[in-house]
UniProtKB/TrEMBL annotation:
Family designation: Belongs to the NAD(P)-dependent epimerase/dehydratase family. Dihydroflavonol-4-reductase subfamily.
Annotated ranges, domain NAD-dependent epimerase/dehydratase: 8-265
Protein's UniProt name: NAD-dependent epimerase/dehydratase domain-containing protein
Segments forming a coiled coil: none
Matching Gene3D superfamilies: NAD(P)-binding Rossmann-like Domain (3.40.50.720)
One Pfam family hit: Epimerase
Length: 339
């Protein structure tokens, strides 16, 4: 590998958000090692961005004890670690195995491995979520980085579909802050609490079925699955473009005063009707796949949020919904023209 701005370990390299974080890191001149669950996935990622400064390491299951140790033992030194890997899907059967263990043990595992085997690491950036902030049952006056979702481990066990993912994010993030507080490692921590993320599909997406969860509603509209009526937008009415999220990760890594902070990364409000309107206007050939008489269900008294810290410290200028949805649909049609 050639000279660079530094070496970064990026976990979950096959993911949607990681795909864009990777582009942003490479464009900024960093050498990157991604983790992937198999040789095949790792090779695919590296092939897709040649001739950049990129390699991969296999981490089959982030929930396993010491899962990341071998990466540091064989690929160090690293200057930064960005931990995006964590499950996000809607078909939960076993909340412990599918959500809580990989999220919580994966996060504490990264922290332990850095402390034990990564003495050169200056900062860890973790992809948390607005799921670790929001409390839909009792909204505060304004959401910001001081807010924490009240969801517990027991909530996840009792209502896996409703609380499994939410609990995994809030408990993993709390575990990370507790580790830093208790262990006082040589590196610091910054956390990205992004809200619902839309944007161009990830590199080398194998099929429309394999698409990341948060882009499903756009995919479904393009496929005509909502022709007879849009799904309710609730409970989350805020969204952000994946390219803004990727830039937020880069800046959280490099801006000195970002260390020790959470960042609520949320662009603006949306409803499914607003997404459908953009698709209809920008892709007239898809108009007959969309409902003609959809109602905008964005509540007049929707919860308020404050994203000032992400704008002022990270310098994020949020992308418009129109551009994001246009680019997302364009990226789907470019790869799957017969959608
Ligand atoms: N998309 C959103 O709207 C959104 C919003 C807020 C926060 N987030 C957070 O952003 C991060 C990335 O999400 P995404 O939307 O990019 O989802 P994604 O495309 O499904 O990516 C998830 C990544 O985590 C990896 N992973 C999951 N479980 C694993 C395990 N047990 N062992 C090893 N790797 C594992 C996946 O590997 P495989 O590809 O091999 O399965 C994939 O690389 C997550 O932490 C998520 O909670 C997402």
């Amino acid at each position: 590998m050639d000279k660079s701005n530094g070496r970064v370990l990026l976990t979950g390299g096959s993911g949607f958000i990681a795909s864009h974080v990777l582009d942003t890191l490479l464009d900024a001149g960093f050498q990157v090692v991604v983790t992937a669950r198999s040789e095949e996935k790792g090779e695919t990622i590296v092939e897709s961005v040649k001739p950049h400064q990129l390699s991969y390491a296999v981490v089959e299951d982030i929930a396993k004890e010491g899962a990341f140790d071998h990466v540091f033992q064989t690929q160090a030194p690293f200057d930064y670690v960005v931990h995006t890997a964590s499950p996000y899907h809607l078909n939960v059967q076993d909340p412990v195995k599918e959500f809580l263990d990989p999220a919580i043990k994966g996060t504490t595992g990264v922290l332990r491995s850095i402390k034990a085997h990564g003495p050169t690491v200056k900062r860890l950036v973790i992809t948390s979520s607005s799921a670790a902030i929001l409390n839909p049952g009792n909204h505060p006056e304004v959401y910001d980085e001081t807010c924490w979702a009240p969801t517990t481990y027991e909530d996840a066990i009792n209502h896996p579909a409703k609380n499994g993912y939410r609990a995994s994010k809030v408990l993993a993030e709390k575990a990370a802050w507790a580790f830093v507080e208790n262990e006082k490692p040589n590196f610091d921590l910054a956390v990205i609490n992004c809200t619902y993320v839309f944007g161009p599909i990830q590199r080398k997406l194998a099929s429309l079925e394999a698409m990341n969860t948060s882009n499903h509603r756009v995919r479904n509209m393009v496929q005509g699955k909502n022709k007879d009526g849009l799904d309710p937008t609730a409970p989350v009415f805020t969204w952000v473009d994946v390219r803004d999220v990727a830039l937020a990760h880069l800046r959280a890594m490099t801006v000195p005063k970002a260390g020790g902070n959470r960042f609520y990364v949320a662009g603006s409000y949306f409803s499914n009707k607003q997404i459908a309107d953009v698709i209809r206007e920008r892709f007239p050939s898809l108009a007959d796949r969309l409902p003609a008489d959809a109602v905008d269900d964005l509540p007049g008294d929707v919860f308020r949020f404050n994203n000032r810290k992400s704008r002022e410290v990270l310098g994020i200028e949020y992308t418009s919904l129109e551009k994001c949805i246009t680019d997302t649909v364009g990226s789907i049609l470019a790869v799957f023209p017969d959608v």
